[in-house]
Amino acid sequence: MTPKDAQERLRILQFWERHGLSATQEAFGVSRRTLYRWKAALKASGGNPAALIPKAPIAKRKRGKNRDPRLVKRIRELRTLYPNLGKERLHRLLAPWCAEQGITLPSVSTIGRIIAEAPDKMRLVPKRLDARGRSKPLRPRVRKARKPKGLKVPPLTLWALDTIERVRDGIRRYILTLVDPVSRCAFALALPQKSSRAVAEAFKALASGQEGKAQPIQLAALSDNGSEFQGAFDAMLESMGLTHYWTYPKSPRMNAHCERFNRTVQEQFVDWHEDLLFTDLKLFNQKLAQWLIDYNTVLPHHSLDLKAPVQWLMENHKECQRYWTNTIRKAVSEWLAHQSQPQWPEIVVNFQGMADRREPRPTETARRGSTGMR
Q1: pLDDT for the residue 146
Q2: Share of the chain above pLDDT 90, in %
Q3: Cys staple from 309: which of 123, 185, 346, 350, with CB 3.0 to 4.6 Å?
């Protein structure tokens, strides 16, 4: 397909052939030299209109960078003496030195370009030592995909994840929460350890539960920068070709829907069943699954015009029937039961075994002993 600019130029050349040079210049305001240049380019290409596509105006002669090596050396010396000194302060320190050496003082922006042109950016990083006094290798800075501002996605395609931590007598338990910011559908699972493998298995169970007979859904995940969302979980998303959005550090508002659900699930369920969380994790998850059924199908939400999440989905997004049956309560009950009993408790049992085999820490033993004395 020929671009519009090339088509317009071809139309002007055809008008020139029919009506002459004077009429063309008067009608289109194109100079004689430009018309002949277009005609020559079209003829050289064998009449291909693509030859009339405008080219980017690039200077034939580019001015080279004339950097005084003494100036570059002095800037590096100053940034070594005063690590990573900024260009404005360098400009002030270079003024007397340039006057003494008879060198023209560069502008602030020029100093910034000199620093940027250096292979190492003239940046010094202090060496970090481990417990044995050996220098630690520097980790390369990895750019993470952040959630775009104002991102709009269909329901059940972007899942926000977070973890809740509870501590009792030195024992830690974690609750993984997942929320769809669009429909407010939410799910949760208690884990004995904050492991990226457990989170990966839980998200796989969630993704497999959404597989319908129609075309597969392209899912995405939104999480903070916790260790449970790195490692195996991030590798699993990459292997499945799914997008992983990260929130900025200390920015819980980027994951506000999940943070709000964390409060709800703690006030309405966890606080009332905290004993089970530390004594019988499997029974806790079974009761949590039953509460989630009511949360998604019965409890009204103010953000959904006082409708339950699944009711709102069925009324406003008919395509969601491809994943669940048309009966609202039966649909979520079967789907959540499939998630909560065959797959998720297996994850809990496996990681519970790992936690039981782990030797208790001295702090935990001391705390348990002190608790027993009470």
Answers
A1: 92
A2: 57
A3: 185
Higher pLDDT, 313 or 357: 313
Q: Is the domain of 187 the same as that of 290?
A: yes
CATH number of residue 278's parent domain: 3.30.420.10
* pTM strictly above 0.90: no
The CATH number given to whatever domain includes residue 94 is 1.10.10
Do 107 and 167 lie in one domain? The reply is no
What amino acid occupies position 270?
V
Q: Which residues contact 52 (CB under 8 A, 6 or more apart)?
A: 5, 6, 9, 10, 38, 41, 42
Max alpha carbon distance in the chain (Å)?
A: 108
Q: Is 121 left (phi over 0), alpha (psi -120 to 50) or beta?
A: left
The answer as to whether 364 is a domain residue is yes
Contacts of 85 (CB under 8 A, 6+ apart): 78, 79, 93
Give residue 21's domain range.
4-52
Give the strands of the sheet with 158-168, arranged side by side: 186-191, 171-179, 158-168, 220-223, 243-246
Helices 108-117 and 87-101 pack at an angle, to 10 degrees, of 100
Answer positive or negative: Cα dihedral of 164, 267, 336, 282: positive
- Count of the separate structural domains present in the chain: 3
DSSP of 218-279: --EEEE-S-GGGSTHHHHHHHHTT-EEEEPPTT-GGGGHHHHHHHHHHHHHTGGGSHHHHHH
Shared domain check, 176 and 39: no
| Claim to verify: residue 83 and residue 47 sit in the same structural domain | no
Task: Reply yes or no on whether the pLDDT at 5 is more than 60.
Answer: yes
Same domain, 94 and 210: no
